[in-house]
Amino acid sequence: MEIFLKNKSDLGLSPEEIKEALVKSLEGKNLKKVLLVPPDFTRFHSNAGYITNTYYHLLKDQTIVDILPALGTHVAMTKEECQEMYGDIPYERFIYHNWRHDIIRIGTVPSAFISEITEGLWDKEVAVEINKLIMDESYDLIISIGQVVPHEVIGMANQSKNLFVGCGGKDMINNSHMIGAVYGMERMMGKDYTPVRKVLDYGMEHFLSKRPILFVLTVTTAPDNKIVTHGLFIGEKRNALEEAIKLSQEKNIYWLDKPIKKCIVYLDPKEFKSTWLGNKAIYRTRMAIENNGELIVLAPGVVKFGEDPGVDMLIRKYGYLGRLKVLELFKENSDLQENMGMTAHLIHGSSDGRFKVTYAVKNITKEEIEGVHFNYASYDEMIKKYNPKTLKYGWNTLENNEIVYFIPNPALGLWIDRNRF
């Protein structure tokens, strides 16, 4: 069954329209046990919270419903975060994905295939690892819920990424991130059929084709921090992803007629507590900022670098040094070789000296910020000049005639200077 809904107005799909589609997606199914796989709190504006809650209540009276948030390497969601995102679902229904211990290996993507799709830039085989619950035959249906949006590692997020990365293990997470970093994020962001997407397509075709998986994909924006769902795409095949990508390319890619000299990005403290997540401010704007420009990241909630203590330690050790320097260090240091996802993150999080990155923070020190090669600013001082409560999305001319471009949430888009790319 395929259900594709699009609403081109600024209002988006109504909750009633979404619920009706979800009801229809379950018609004719005799289900005893269902696994819901939504994104975690870092994808709060995906509207996956409402969808997950709706599915739970549609199923719970006649079906066992488990929920496995696709954490990847992120920290487990708190009870409060689950309540805020997913509503009144009992907390005991949520299962924590441990990317180090809860996975099984279901196959391998061969090195020859990897070399072919990366133009010879990477040639290591990739172990396909996934949370053991995805392969648990007691589940009659697995519903993978997520948002299609431009992404720095894969080009366009979601569908199989929710499973192989969000519910994946170390080898897949590390290799997929490294393949994307070596191939070049600016060659991939906003596009389908990137090398990383081809790896995951291979995994779907060869190792998950017999599993009862239903993909429920959204395309959203969040003007004034309110979720607008422009499209809902439900289906078992890849074409649900392809239709969602077309709409996301319309709604989530912002083409600018001139480059940005000074870009101000705000990170909601409930969503962004680390540079691991907060560096979306860099990924999603780098194609729009001019040479020698500046990115100021207003990050009141950032208190650390990595979501994982081990990753945090390595980011502090090496810092965001630029692509060529990180690749040079990668050849010489076993801790980088063993943590390729983190190594890729170091590449992604650097402007390669092309523009200045300033983190304006409250609860992490100047020494720590500068230690990873960012510029430091006090959040409280910076918002006296650039107040996120008074800036409007897009171009702003300030009282001193300074022109800045303001982005209230970098996770929901990709900004590109049409003259450069």
- How would you describe the shape? globular
The span between the termini is: 38 Å
Mean pLDDT: 95
Number of domains: 2
Question: How is the main sheet built?
Answer: 6 strands, mixed
CATH topology of the largest domain: Rossmann fold
| CATH superfamily caption of the largest domain | LarA, N-terminal domain
Class by SSE composition: alpha/beta
- Note the total helix count: 16
Bin the helical content: 25-40%
Radius of gyration: 21 Å
Looking across the biggest beta sheet, what order are the strands in?
1-10-9-6-2-3
Strand content: 15-25%
**Based on DSSP secondary structure assignment, what is the total number of beta strands?**
18
User: CATH class of the largest domain, anyone?
Assistant: Alpha Beta
Summarize the structure in words:
The chain is an alpha/beta fold and 421 residues long. The protein has two domains: 3-251, 3-Layer(aba) Sandwich (Rossmann fold), CATH 3.40.50; 255-417, Alpha-Beta Complex (2-enoyl-CoA Hydratase, Chain A, domain 1), CATH 3.90.226. It has helices at residues 15-25, 48-59, 79-86, 111-117, 160-164, 170-183, 195-207, 239-251, 275-278, 280-283, 309-318, 323-332, 334-337, 340-348, 366-371, 379-385; strands at 3-6, 33-37, 64-67, 103-109, 126-131, 141-147, 150-151, 155-156, 213-221, 228-235, 253-256, 260-266, 289-299, 356-361, 375-378, 394-397, 403-407, 414-417. The strands form five sheets. The chain has a six-stranded mixed sheet with strand order 1-10-9-6-2-3, with helices on both faces. The chain has a six-stranded mixed sheet with strand order 15-14-13-12-17-16. Strands 4-5 form a two-stranded antiparallel ribbon.
